[in-house]
Amino acid sequence: MAVTTVQETRGGALGHPVQIEAAARSLRNSTSVRLLRFALANVRRRPERFALAVFGIALAILSVTVVRTISSSFAITGSDSVTRVLDGASLWAVPAAGVHYDSDAGAIVADGPAPDLTVPDGWTAARTVTGVWSSDAGDLPVYGSDAIADGTAVLGAQAAATLGLAGGDTLAFGGADLAVTVGGDDAVVAVPEALAVDVVGDDGWWTVTEPADQAGRNDLGALLSAETGLPSTTNPAVQPEAGGGGLIYDAVGGGGSTTFEQEFSALFSGQVTSSAFGLISVIGLVLGFVIAISSFLAAVQERRREFGIMASIGLADEVLYFFLVESALVFVSAYLLGITFAGIAVWLVVPQIATPVAWLAAAGTVAAYLPAMAIVGALVPVHRLLQQRPVQLLGDSA
């Protein structure tokens, strides 16, 4: 009998290390389930408080997500727009009035006529006329270039969808019927230069390509500047001088870890996040956090006797775990509600620039705040609670 007992102790359910570990894991899992049930029971007991806390935090998350989504959308569309403008060229000569991104049209357009430009032998300069065409289907950006053959029009996929046209159809533009070709994903209507001038005017820019034997140099802007007298820069944040002749942007001479397109798109993103709209979103996030802490403080005050009993029997740590789970439940619910309504709001307000990628990027950025907010949201009220002795908690609640 003694031998059997030893064998059972060594190989039985409580003796084998793997089985002991499994039992411990089961205990931990059951503890997690109990904590979740406790949090859900408290939600059912005070559903109005839970709803108000979730709604308040969701509004804050919504505001931040909307701003971040618009910011990311501008960064994406800005980078794509510059890539479309350069079309492989290394240098971009803009007018003295500069250029801007027209969010309604969905493309970069010039604010004045292209500067006077004569390039050295071997260099190639292409003039592009830009403007916004008020078509029957809505405003669309127009790029006029000699690279487009007479009698044809090249539409980006978005422009084709707006106009309801496909390849092989005919586009009535400026009194001419143009054969349509669809290329690219943008909203640009590319037509012959002379026709574009008749419809949208002569505002535009130059794109310049260096000779093959000078490709890859980081001082192309300086070289062309010395030949033409126009100033050059590798920084897209620099604007042409008012009353000057224009400015040359060197798209390859920066030599940094970011491209010219990325730096240009970052300007769009920064303008949104640094605007009054961006400041309001940050304030909203702080207010949402204050709402959460206020809700948890009220919950602690109501349950002082309950937590006093738990602390008196050595379960003070469980009090913290209870509130961590409840805090996580509130913040996760608010997060899902906030990003969902943010996505709907952006698609309704600015559908021309909103993209799923930008929304996911914004949602991921906001999600990074949640763990810290949930932990602090639980720690602040619980810390105040556990500073008191169990007797005090029980006595004050009597």
Structure report:
Helix 3 (47-86) runs antiparallel to helix 7, helix 9 (304-312) packs antiparallel against helix 13 (390-397) and helix 10 packs antiparallel against helix 12 (370-386). Strand 2 (99-102) and strand 3 (107-110) form a beta hairpin. The longest helix is centred in the first third of the chain and has 40 residues, at 47-86. Helices cover 56% and strands 16% of the residues. The protein contains 13 helices and twelve strands. It has helices spanning 2-11, 17-45, 47-86, 157-163, 193-200, 220-228, 260-273, 276-302, 304-312, 316-349, 356-367, 370-386, 390-397, and strands at residues 91-94, 99-102, 107-110, 124-135, 138-145, 152-155, 170-173, 176-182, 189-192, 204-209, 232-233, 247-250. With 398 residues, it is of the alpha+beta class. 37% of the residues are buried. It has two domains: 37-73 and 274-397, no CATH class; 90-217, no CATH class.
